[in-house]
Every structure is written in C-alpha cells, then in structure tokens.
Amino acid sequence: MIGLPPGATAVGTVTVRDGQASFTHRGTGDLHTRYEIGSVTKTLTVLLLCDLAVAGLVTLDDPVNRHLPPPARLPGPHGPEVTLRHLAAHTSGLPRVPRDLYLRALPTLLSAPYARYPGRLLLRAAGRCRIRHAPGSRTGYSTFGIGLLGEALSRAAGTGWADLIAAHITVPLGLTDTGCEQRPERDATGHSTRGRIRPPFRIPGLAPAGALRSTVTDLGRYLAAWLDPDSSPLAAAVRLATTAGIGWERDGDLRWHSGATPGFTALAGFCSPRRTAFAALTDATPGRDSIVTPAFAMLEATADADLRRG
C-alpha cells in the first residue's frame, strides 16, 4: 500500500485485474471521496476527441483552425497545418502554456496559478502564438494544446467542454462522481507538502487540460474501459485512441498519465496485454516524496505480477 506523502491526510488506490477492481484507502474520506486529478483530465479530453470522430463531427486530421474563430486561428507558417491529432499527441509545436499566462499567474503562483486566466485569453493567445516547429516533427508536452483542443471540440459540437465530457464520457461509462463541479460534501481538501490547506483548483481557460475531479472508484471503471474496449459503450473511441497512440504517456506496454494541482496528486495507468491497471489519488501537491514514483512502481509491479501469474 502506498503511504501518505508529506502534507497529505489521505491516499486511495485502485487495482484492476481481468475486469475486477480492488481498492485500498488510508486516512480521511473513503473510496467515494473526490480528488482533483489534474492532467489526468487530458486523457478524457483525448477520448472525447475520438468519440466525436467516431460520431462524424470531426476527424483526427481536421486542421484546428477549422474549428476556431478567426481571431484565435493559429498563425503561419505552421499554424494552418496543426491538426486535432497534433494537439492530442503533443506534437503541435505549441508551447507548454500560453506566454501571457506567466504574468497573470505570479500573484497566486503556488496556490492558484491558472485562476486568473479565462478562456478569452486562451483564444487571444492562440491567434498570437508562434509554432516552434513543424507539426508532427517532435513531441513537446503542451497544456496549451489540450486546452485549445477542448475549445475546438466545443465549437465543433456547439456545446461546452464540460457538458461534452458528461454526455460522451462520464455518463456512458457510469463515472457518477467525475466532473468539474464542486461538491463540498464529497470533495477532499487539498494541501501543500507542509500540510497547509489549498483552495479548490480553478483553471477556467484551460479546463480540458486539468479541471476534473474524480474518485478511485470512478478511475477503476475508467481504466477498465481502456483494458477491455469490447465491454465498454466507448469501444470504438477507445480503439481509435489506442490505434492513433494518443492520450497517454508510454513506457513499453504501459500507458499512464500523472496529474497535479496545488493541493492534489494523481496517477493512472494500465497495461493492455496484461489486462491490468492501477491508479492512486492523494490530497497533497507533489513534492520530493510524492506518490507518483511509488504509484508508477505499483503499476509496473501489477503488470509484472500478472505476467508471472500467467
């Protein structure tokens, strides 16, 4: 079992093997306590892209400029070539975050770095940004890119990103406790590594990259859908994402993504050939002794144990 990291009051995990989930929980709350999952949100936004592609509303290779208003369209020479696939795969050439975010983040950098950055600034930044290399030529992790992907999908579907996530991802998969809205009676309180209470995370302009809250129970269901697409209502979308190699970090057969906010840390991952998955959530921001390293080790160990068992 993963121990409590510095500053945390709780840690929960879920292990999935052959469709069966098992849980551990230590500290405050329970298996249905909601945690901020940070950048694990990105995997749901990419799955949303694939589900909208299956539905015929977009294609992976649509230019992103097709779905943005004129002031927000990426400029040349490479901007018109950036596709939704490039955004999802972090190969767009966009920087990690919009350049004008830094100045706005400074007053609340440790507690609320994204709170003062609304969607209108994201669109303005897109129209003024510089694509750093030819799209598809190299990988560069970009929260900016996933935020812009969510905006493009919202405009293509004529519905806000949060509503799209509910309609296409969380409701079909039965993720009843996963969403952006706050539920004070169910939401854990975030902490710094020294145990100081952090306010709820706000990321209005880049919500598709990090706004979701979830539980270990819901993450178990979510990972099960990636392990066994045939049993999922999102089978075609999962297969498309898997074939395209988008949505997750890769390490051999392992697919994983970590997430962090000023008060929480998360890691979720799976190994399809071994039909195993693992996720961990805690109510403290990452520090030198965060849960990411032991959680990834648990993911590897879960897959290795299944290999030996087989």
UniProtKB/TrEMBL annotation:
SUPFAM superfamilies linked: beta-lactamase/transpeptidase-like
Region Disordered, annotated ranges: 178-199
Beta-lactamase-related domain boundaries: 17-289
Composition bias type Basic and acidic residues, residue spans: 180-189
Cited PANTHER family: D-ALANYL-D-ALANINE CARBOXYPEPTIDASE (PTHR46825:SF7), D-ALANYL-D-ALANINE-CARBOXYPEPTIDASE/ENDOPEPTIDASE AMPH (PTHR46825)
Protein name, entry field: Penicillin-binding protein
Protein source organism: Actinoplanes campanulatus
Lineage of source species: Bacteria, Bacillati, Actinomycetota, Actinomycetes, Micromonosporales
